[in-house]
Write a structure and sequence with these properties.
Oligomer: single chain
Order of helices and strands: EEHHEEEEHEEEHEHEHHEEEHEHE
Distance between the termini: 25 Å
Number of helices: 9
Number of strands: 16
Length: about 375
C-alpha cells in the first residue's frame, strides 16, 4: 500500500523478512541507515546508532506490542522512518509513535501528512492516546516549554513547535546523564556501595546475565511489572504492564536477538527471598560500545534503605570488571524523580541532554 504525500513523497509499509532468523534485506539496511541519521540529527550524537541486525529485532511485534513501520520515499530514496507501537497492556488504548524525517526535507508538509495517517491508523486500532519522546537540542529555539510537573523544560525548537501545532502537549521532561569512567571511579563506587550496604543489613546482592535463571523468573517479572506503577509518569497515563515468566522469556529473547548482553543486579531480602530492587546494564555491539543503564527500581515498600545506591554501585562495579573497554554509561530519568537523580549525581553521572515526553489524545 502506498500513499501520495506532499512534495511528491510516498509513504510505504516496511515489509519485514518472513523468517524470524532471516538476515536484514537491503530495504531494512536503508531504513536503519536513515533512522540512524535522523537520530544523530536530533541528538547531535552517534552513540544511539543501531546495526541493521539489531534494528530488525525490534521491528517485529509480539504478544505485548503490535509494531508497524512505514517509510517515506522521495525520488527512490528513503528520507523518513515512521514506527507505531501499540501496547497490549491495560485496555490497549496507548501507542507510541515517531516521525523521523531527515532535516533537509523539513518544512514541506510531509510530517503533517504522515502524522494524519498515523493518527488514523492508531484510531482504527482503538488507540486513544498517542505518545512520543523527543530530544530537544535547542537549535532554532524560541524560548522554552515548561513541564507541567514543575520539573524541567525543553527548548521550544522545531520539533516542539511541530508537536504543539498538532495538539500534542508536553507532560514530562527526562534527563539523559552520562557516567564517564575515570581512574578513581571504581574506588568511589566501592565506597558508596559499602556505605549503602551498612544501611541494608537485611538484604544481599544477587546478579545474573540474561537469560534470567529459573529461580528469579517470578521475582524479576514482579519487579518489571512495578516499573509501570512505581515510577513517575506525570500525566502520560502509562498502562499497568502484566508480567509473568513467559513475558520475561520474550523480553530476554528480544535482547538476545539484538546481540545485547545484559546484567541484572537485584537486592534480595534475606529473610523472605523476595527481590526488592533491581538495576539493568546493557551493551550492544562490540565490548567497546557505550553502556545503557536500563530500568532501575526500588519497590515502594522497601525504600529508605539505600537499596537504589546498593544495586547501582554493585552493578556498575561488576560491569566495569566484565566490560572495561566500554567508556561510559548513559541513563534516563524523569526530572521529578529526585531520589534517583540524587543517586546518579552522587555516583558521578552528569546531564548531557533533555528529552520531552509528549501526549496527544485522539478523538
Amino acid at each position: 500500500m502506498s500513499i501520495l504525500l506532499p512534495a511528491g513523497a510516498v509513504l510505504r509499509r516496511l515489509e519485514l523478512p518472513a523468517r524470524v532468523d532471516a538476515a536484514p534485506t537491503p530495504l531494512i539496511r536503508e531504513y536503519t541507515a536513515v533512522r540512524n541519521a535522523c537520530v544523530a540529527e536530533e541528538t547531535g550524537r552517534d552513540d544511539e546508532a543501531q546495526t541493521p541486525e539489531a534494528m530488525l529485532a525490534v521491528l517485529r511485534g509480539d504478544a505485548d506490542v503490535t509494531r508497524t513501520q512505514w517509510y517515506v520515499e522521495l525520488d527512490g530514496r528513503i528520507v523518513g522512518c515512521v514506527p507505531l507501537n501499540i501496547s497490549h497492556d491495560g485496555d490497549g488504548g496507548m501507542a507510541v509513535g515517531t516521525i523521523a524525517l531527515l532535516k533537509e526535507h523539513w518544512g514541506r508538509g510531509i510530517g503533517t501528512a504522515v502524522l494524519r495517517f498515523v493518527e488514523e491508523q492508531a484510531r482504527t486500532a482503538g488507540v486513544r492516546r498517542l505518545l512520543c519522546w523527543n530530544q530537544h537540542r535547542g537549535a532554532d529555539a524560541r524560548g522554552e516549554v515548561a513541564s507541567p510537573t514543575g520539573f524541567g523544560a525543553v527548548p521550544n525548537d522545531h520539533a516542539a513547535r511541530f508537536l504543539q501545532r498538532h495538539d500534542f502537549r508536553l507532560e514530562q521532561v527526562e534527563r539523559a546523564s552520562e557516567l564517564r569512567w575515570t581512574s578513581d571511579s571504581e574506588d568511589h563506587l566501592r565506597s558508596l556501595q559499602h556505605e549503602a550496604q551498612t544501611h541494608a543489613p537485611d538484604y544481599r546482592v544477587v546478579q545474573w546475565m540474561l537469560p534470567t535463571p529459573s529461580e528469579h523468573l517470578d521475582g524479576y517479572a514482579w519487579l518489571k511489572s512495578r516499573m509501570s506503577t512505581d515510577v513517575p509518569d506525570a500525566a502520560l497515563d502509562m498502562p499497568v504492564e502484566r508480567w509473568d515468566a513467559e513475558r520475561v522469556h520474550r523480553h530476554d529473547a528480544r535482547y538476545a536477538a539484538r546481540g545485547a548482553r545484559v546484567l541484572v543486579t537485584a537486592a534480595q531480602h534475606i529473610a523472605t527471598g523476595e527481590l526488592c530492587a533491581f538495576n539493568e546494564l546493557a551493551i550492544i555491539g562490540t565490548d567497546a560500545a557505550k553502556t545503557d543503564q536500563e530500568d532501575t527500581l526500588v519497590l515502594a515498600e522497601h525504600r529508605g534503605r539505600r537499596l537504589g545506591m546498593l544495586v547501582k554501585t554493585a552493578g556498575l562495579l561488576s560491569w566495569r570488571a566484565r566490560y572495561p573497554e566500554s567508556p561510559y554509561v548513559v541513563t534516563y530519568n524523569a526530572e521529578e524523580n529526585r531520589p534517583m537523580l540524587s543517586i546518579n549525581e552522587a555516583i558521578g553521572f552528569t546531564p548531557v541532554a533533555y528529552e520531552g515526553a509528549w501526549r496527544k489524545d485522539l478523538t
